[in-house]
Amino acid sequence: MSAGFYSAMVENATITGAVTCLQLTAPSTAALKLTRVEIGQAGVTASAMQRMALRRKSATATGLTSITPRPVAPGYAAAGATAGHTATGEGTDTTDQRLFVFNVLAGYLWAPTSPKEEIVVPPSGIICLKALATPGTTTGWAFQMDFEEIG
């Protein structure tokens, strides 16, 4: 049973190392199904490659700036999931679900194209978008994770 579709996003973030850029924590009463992940960068005009991962965690990152996931359509209740961006401490990383290597001028979009590619976060589970290396340009980053709450 779907409880709603939501989007957690941050724009103009500064990423100064290999850090958690955006994190979602599922509520204890529902799972999350990721429907889209978007990465963009507006602080540079020169071509450069960046590595990032969609990664599960067993302990939350610390020092996150809290953000409120937004319903993508009128009528949805507030999200039960919590979100935050730009960690100062990493918590405990566990499993990489997807690795992304992309040119910062183009950005990156991930969306499952079949049910076999869907990523589900169990109740109370944590997933994040993490920079695997310090970007060449640290300012002007945008991150978005869209998800469905199930349960």
Task: Detail the topology: elements first, then pairings.
Layout (H helix, E strand, L loop, with lengths): L1 E12 L6 E6 L5 E11 L7 E11 L5 E3 L2 E2 L10 E4 L6 E12 L4 E3 L8 E3 L4 E6 L9 E10 L1
Antiparallel strand pairs: 1-6, 1-12, 2-7, 2-11, 3-9, 3-10, 3-12, 4-8, 4-11, 5-7
What does this structure look like?
- There is one protein chain.
- The relative contact order is 0.45.
- The strands form 2 sheets. Strands 1, 3, 6, 9, 10 and 12 form a 6-stranded antiparallel beta sheet that branches.
- With 151 residues, this protein is mostly beta strands.
- It is 0% helix and 55% strand.
- The protein has one domain: Jelly Rolls (Sandwich), CATH 2.60.120.
- The protein has strands spanning 2-13, 20-25, 31-41, 49-59, 65-67, 70-71, 82-85, 92-103, 108-110, 119-121, 126-131, 141-150.
- It contains no helices and 12 strands.
Task: Briefly summarize what is shown.
The chain is mainly beta and 151 residues long. It is built from no helices and twelve strands.
SSE string: EEEEEEEEEEEE
Q: Which consecutive residue ranges, at least 5 long each, have pLDDT under 50?
A: none
Proportion of β residues?
Answer: over 45%
Write the CATH architecture name: Sandwich
- Output the radius of gyration: 15 Å
The biggest sheet, with number of strands, parallel, antiparallel or mixed sense and barrel status, is: 6 strands, antiparallel
Number of domains: 1
